[in-house]
Queue: 3 jobs
Job 1
Amino acid sequence: MAEFVIHVGSYTAQGKRSNNEDRLVADPKTHVFLVADGMGGQDSGERASGLAADIIPRVLNDRLAAHDDPGKAVQAAIAEAHKAIIQEGQQQSSTRRMGTTAVVALETQDQVYVAGVGDSPAMLIRGDKVEQLTLDHTVADALARNGTITPEQAKTSPWRNVLYKFLGCAEMTEGAEVRPFAPKAGDRLVLASDGLSGYVTHEELRQGATQFPDPQKWAEHLVQMALDKGSKDNVTCVVVAFDAE
């Protein structure tokens, strides 16, 4: 049996953009959590992230009600959102791609199933360690992973914001990888758009996890920190706190 209770905080800010293309889901009843960062211009980006935020939780709940394997349910929900966004994009007159990142976490049966497509990360803070559970699907990060450039070079590469994998990407052939983990009391899971993760360091996450026991206050603090440090993007995060009973 779980030795923790779940508390959730979430916050999003438009920042210096003319509109907010980020969407979030923070449902403490179904234990479904999501951040989606839309792209493709105002209408297209908002529509793509909105589709992800609507479809993924609904498909997850349907699949779990049918007693599907949780990991496969996460993959199926992401795949269905991807298909819907591609179909919607084909009806758009705009030449710009319509798409969205998505990072999803599902807690069920004392396990958390995490999956991400794009560069909106999931980060687990446990004690004094911070671990990113998802891959960033940018060209720069792919080059760093295969050793073509260094991780430091990837941070300033002109390819650092170019995604090769996202929901709505017609060339995406692989589905989402699901990473399960067993949560422990004291854990903090942060799902974020890159408007936050590109500015808040792992050290600041490690410190904030103990400074802000209230996940809502911490979510608001993290978003404001990213804005104060110069983020010009929409900034969004969901904080899932696994507190001791």
Job 2
Amino acid sequence: MDPLEHDLIELWKEVLHLDRLHRDDSFESLGGTPALGGQLIERLEKRFNLILHLPWLVAAPTVAQQAAWLQRRCFGTQAPQEGVAEPEAWRHYFAGRFAPDPHELAADKRNPPALFVLSAARTGSTLLRIMLAGHPQLFSPPELELLLFPTMQQRKDGLLGGWSDFLGLERALMDLFNLDEGAARAQVSQMVAANLSTQQVYHTLQQHCAPRLLVDKSPSYPISRTALERLQKWFEAPKVIHLVRHPLACVRSWTASNFDQVFHAPPRQAAEMDWLLSNENIERACSNRHLVRYEDLVVDPAAVMHKICEFVQIDFHPAMLTPYEGPRMTERLGGLVSGDKRFYQKTAIDPAAAQGSRRLPGDGPLCPDTVEMARRYGYTDL
């Protein structure tokens, strides 16, 4: 047997509590669940010193497939250079992938105001979310993943029955209702069984976190114009923090974090187009927004957070500057970490993180649309 496959089989046996398994058995067919998948991912990350994502167990469900991927990524030759992305083709793709549900009912009543943190992937939104969680007038849970879907059953299906769900909603319910993880999971299951609208779920969260303002940070939203349309239709005077980062830093972070496990496309092109189209959609759909540059956030967090508080119309609170202190809804659930795993590898806001926002050797070309937009945000060295 190949040594890499042998290592993987031993890890699988530990997690699944099995004595024997075959290289072509799928994880789920052997009794693997998302919770057990989280445990396997954690072991694999320690063993191979890289970042992995739970949906990878759906894309590469067998030992043989995982070994082949790891062989290419960890021990293979350098990936071939990708060409420059064509934005119009990607716009068409995402418009079809996140098309409106023709059976969705129009909202007959708006929810109270809420605050949304919107950004492309790999922009630093986990750090900002946890900084906001330190303010006593804000309720800032991990990714809720509600705007992408009109109903809870569609949300369950869209999150692959749990394989792409990092339990942000469960974590919010645990905090609001003083529940343990099992009870929170049961409450979400009841919401699915009743097929509540996700707008109703938002309303429940807002009722129980009041008078605190609900904050929703889910990086999946901006790539979907439909999700941003729901934001405007479902909430009274919603406010948006529009977080941006140098596009080349986002591209590097995307590829280093192995996001091709989640979105199966040429990784560099996918990262750039996520950056471009997400920011295009935010600009188009969200008028009441406050722009924050990630680089400013890590270099001068006090100044940035004071301006955010002015925008939200709340007083500044010093706990916002110490995101690694106090309860911030950052605990693992089901063996899973919600948000950016790299956040948890640090102990304080790192101003050196801003230094990556420049062109480095090995960076490929950016398309003209990306360059133009980045310059509007004040970025150079593109």
Job 3
Amino acid sequence: MRVLLLALAVLSAAATVSAEEFKAGDLLVMHPVVRATPGGAKVGGGYLTVRNTGSMPDRLVAIENSIAGRVEIHASSTENGIASMRELTDGLPVPAGGEATLSPGGNHVMFVDLKAPFRTGETVSATLIFERAGRVPVTFAVEPIGGARPAGLTHQGH
């Protein structure tokens, strides 16, 4: 009985890890999360890290999702004390042997024209589209508004 319980605990832990990481060729998509949104909100922010273990660069060129009218990759910046966002129309480079991070306060995913709110504890399915790796289905975990920062991210909430 102990062995069975231990095996179930190990499988449960493994499922948790795999739910936060998605692999496609040389790319590893880690910790995709979105923040919960209040009812009636039309936009929501998403965050993740893409690690490229290969010798060739790649580029995240688009994201598809059925709960939003469109999904954009945004850059955030502050100039002369004024914060602004702009869409990265050429996508997000993922360097060979490096990482690209979409995080609160920095580059991020913007879900626009939401058809339903993001609710804490639920998940949001999406497909990341890379120039080289192609289509990568991922699941974003929905974290509370103002919740803890996603693992590995260094900026404050968006």
